[in-house]
Design a protein that fits this description.
Elements (H helix, E strand, L loop, with lengths): L1 E9 L4 H11 L3 E9 L5 E9 L4 H10 L3 E10 L9 E2 L9
Antiparallel strand pairs: 1-3, 1-4, 2-3, 4-5
């Protein structure tokens, strides 16, 4: 199964490595990747083409739960539900102690 993940992350140390680690833990391979910072340098916009033999839904739900993930959009390229998309939009709040 091959699918494309468009992901927006906070520009934080280790954010992309956490995403890649989660994919590796679920036995998915990244066949291509491109990433760039947003104009304000607060976010990273990445596009990953992923391949694997397992179902994509569990890993997508795990990616969505990562703290640094602000938005996630998935499209199946082959071997899956071609019309399925999983959009996630998250607004983060930071609570600091007084």
């Amino acid at each position: 199964m091959k699918f494309i993940v468009n992901i927006r992350l906070n520009n934080a140390e280790g954010a992309m490595e956490r995403v890649l680690g989660r994919l590796r833990a679920r036995c998915f391979e990244v066949s291509s990747m491109s990433a760039e910072r947003s104009h304000d340098r607060a976010h990273i916009d990445a596009r990953l083409t992923i391949e694997g033999q397992r179902a994509a839904e569990p890993v997508i739900k795990q990616l969505e739960k990562l703290y640094d993930v602000q938005s996630l959009r998935v499209q199946f390229a082959e071997g899956g539900n071609h019309g399925w998309q999983y959009p996630v939009e998250r607004q983060s709040e930071v609570c600091l102690p007084l």
